[in-house]
């Protein structure tokens, strides 16, 4: 198995990489803030966050604030471990001669 095989396919998308990067350094991030930070559409954020939730890398919390719906995200322990392993594999790949 080569170094490239150790890269996690769940993080190949730049949007998913961005979501995970933001969540690794923040506790909860709401939909509006995440969308603004990544400069992406509602649909893009919804589909990529759904994919990360499906593999249990992020937790999605939906609630109402007043009468308005609010969606927030945070990284799970499983997601944190998987993303750290992905970053280590990237670092190894960059150091390969």
TrEMBL record:
<dbReference type="InterPro" id="IPR036390">
    <property type="entry name" value="WH_DNA-bd_sf"/>
</dbReference>
<dbReference type="InterPro" id="IPR036388">
    <property type="entry name" value="WH-like_DNA-bd_sf"/>
</dbReference>
<protein>
    <submittedName>
        <fullName>Helix-turn-helix domain protein</fullName>
    </submittedName>
</protein>
<dbReference type="Pfam" id="PF13601">
    <property type="entry name" value="HTH_34"/>
</dbReference>
<feature type="domain" description="Winged helix DNA-binding">
    <location>
        <begin position="15"/>
        <end position="94"/>
    </location>
</feature>
<dbReference type="InterPro" id="IPR027395">
    <property type="entry name" value="WH_DNA-bd_dom"/>
</dbReference>
